[in-house]
Design goal:
Strand content: 35-45%
Number of helices: 3
Number of strands: 8
Mean pLDDT: 94
Low-confidence stretches: none
Largest sheet: 6 strands, mixed
Structural class: alpha/beta
Radius of gyration: 14 Å
Helix content: 10-25%
Strand order of the largest sheet: 3-2-4-5-6-7
Distance between the termini: 14 Å
Length: about 140
């Protein structure tokens, strides 16, 4: 199960809506070994695409160095789907390389009247996708 604060939830959703119609992407880091998301890090979608996201390789390298310096790890890796449901695509599954991370998907299809808003979390391990419950709390 993913437990996330209302503030972090709201930041992820706001980023997804701001970048619509392009996919938004980012990371929420937390102290190593805690599984607790704490630091919101919106990233630039280098692909600038409504159907694909890609972290800029230099930005990603900088982020991982920074997390290492702060004894953090990626707890949540998030991105948005702009016209489809919040479920990992084959591409998303292929790029999932953090076995301990929660992969959060936000669908902003509702922004165009194409469907309901969705905020869903998944574990992706060795190509297997497992949806998990999301608990939104006021604070940890």
């Amino acid at each position: 199960m993913l437990t996330i604060t209302q503030a972090l939830y709201d930041q992820i959703v706001a980023h997804a809506r701001e970048d619509h119609p392009d996919e938004a992407c980012g990371v929420v880091a937390g102290p190593v070994g805690t599984g607790r998301p704490e630091r919101f890090i919106p990233m630039l979608n280098a692909a600038r695409s409504p159907t694909f996201y890609e972290f800029d390789s230099q930005d990603l390298l900088k982020l991982y160095r920074e997390m290492d310096d702060r004894d953090e790890e990626p707890v949540i890796i998030y991105h948005s789907h702009t016209a489809t449901e919040a479920y990992p695509s084959r591409t998303d599954i292929g790029y999932a390389n953090e076995p301990g991370a929660h992969y959060v998907l936000v669908s902003t299809a509702d922004a165009d009247g194409l469907g309901e808003f969705q905020f869903r979390s998944f574990r992706i391990l060795d190509g297997e996708v497992t949806e998990e419950e999301v608990e939104v709390v006021a604070a940890y």
